[in-house]
Amino acid sequence: QVQLVESGGGLVQSGGSLRLSCAASGSMFSIGTMGWYCQAPGKERELVARVTSGGSTTYADSVKGRFFISRDNAKKTTYLQMTSLKPEDTAVYYCNADIVSRWGDRDYWGQGTQVTVSS
Questions:
Q1: Distance (Å, rounded) from C-alpha 20 to C-alpha 90?
Q2: How would you write the pLDDT of the chain (119 residues) with one tens digit per residue?
Q3: Beta-strand (E) ranges in the chain?
Q4: Which end of the chain, N or C, is surrounded by fewer C-beta atoms within 10 Å?
Q5: What whole-number distance in Å separates Cα of residue 66 and Cα of residue 80?
Q6: Which of 48, 18, 52, 15 is closest to 32 using CA atoms?
Q7: Cα-to-chain-centroid distance, residue 27
Q8: H or E stretch including 15?
Q9: What is the DSSP letter of 102?
């Protein structure tokens, strides 16, 4: 069974940094685009950043220049380096990946990790 396991969330002061990690596990043939989404209370889940299998990246305007997404294909892991954090970055952050396995080409989600930025 394919799973995405996230780590790295927590409480940080405004201006601080955090690094989130998301590792894919299980039997799979390939991983396409990997990304991070966030969902704040009362709001819809929205894209933060994503990276294709070839390394092309996309960022939400609100995080450009502060957050940086990367991936290690050998480790089947994506990272989100978050810098200059602001209270408005507070949300649950979810990892997402397009994975081809014996069950077909599917979108997978992690369980979510809480990021809280205090002012």
A1: 14
A2: 899 999 999 999 999 999 999 999 999 999 999 999 999 999 999 999 999 999 999 999 999 999 999 999 999 999 999 999 999 999 999 999 999 999 999 999 999 999 999 99
A3: 3-7, 10-13, 18-25, 30-39, 46-51, 57-59, 67-72, 77-82, 91-101, 104-109, 113-118
A4: N
A5: 10
A6: 52
A7: 21
A8: none
A9: T
Q: In what order do the strands lie in the sheet with 18-25?
A: 3-7, 18-25, 77-82, 67-72
Residues 6+ apart with CB under 8 A from 68: 49, 80, 81, 83
**How do residues 29-47 score in pLDDT, each as one tens digit?**
999 999 999 999 999 999 9
Distance of CA 53 to the CA centre of its chain: 15
Neighbours of 36 (CB within 10 A): 27
Identity of the residue numbered 99 = I
